[in-house]
Design brief:
Blueprint (H helix, E strand, L loop, with lengths): L27 H59 L2 H10 L37 H10 L1
């Protein structure tokens, strides 16, 4: 069997670029745009860092205030306990007897006073109109005296 060789004839055009444009130099406007973009990004990053610094500073101040509140509350609790111990009636009686030389009153030294009953002033005939005899001016002064 005879195999015939085929003749492949591939013709490729030479590699040349016809629409090749000359290299353009970077325009000054592009450099300016890049510079403005860098300045904007830098200023935004500085702004974000500044805000985080403020937040950190405020959190430190908050921590200090919380510690101060805890300290003040502990002192307040200690003072309440001291007040409770100092206002004990038995302790007050002991101080009155020993230091101030006081003594309990005897029966003939006690005077009872009635509290709660108000002495009544002359009543009018008609209880619905107690101030009928007073003038308008006197009633007005009575309002301001209260």
């Amino acid at each position: 069997m005879i195999v015939a060789q085929k003749d492949y004839n591939y013709q490729y055009p030479p590699y040349t670029s016809y629409d090749k444009k000359p290299d353009k130099k970077a325009k000054p406007n592009a450099k300016l745009k890049n510079l403005i973009l860098v300045v904007i990004v830098a200023s935004l990053s500085i702004l974000v860092l500044y805000r985080y610094a403020l937040i950190y500073e405020k959190s430190l101040a908050l921590d200090r205030l919380e510690k101060q509140i805890e300290y003040t509350e502990s002192i307040n609790q200690q003072l309440r306990a001291e007040i409770a111990s100092l206002s004990n009636p038995a302790r007050i009686e002991e101080i009155a007897k020993e230091r101030l030389k006081m003594q309990l009153p005897e029966k003939d030294q006690i005077v009872y006073v009635k509290v709660g009953e108000v002495p009544k002033v002359a009543e009018s005939d008609n209880p619905k109109e107690p101030h009928k005899k007073d003038s308008f001016f006197m009633r007005l002064l009575g309002v301001f005296n209260r």
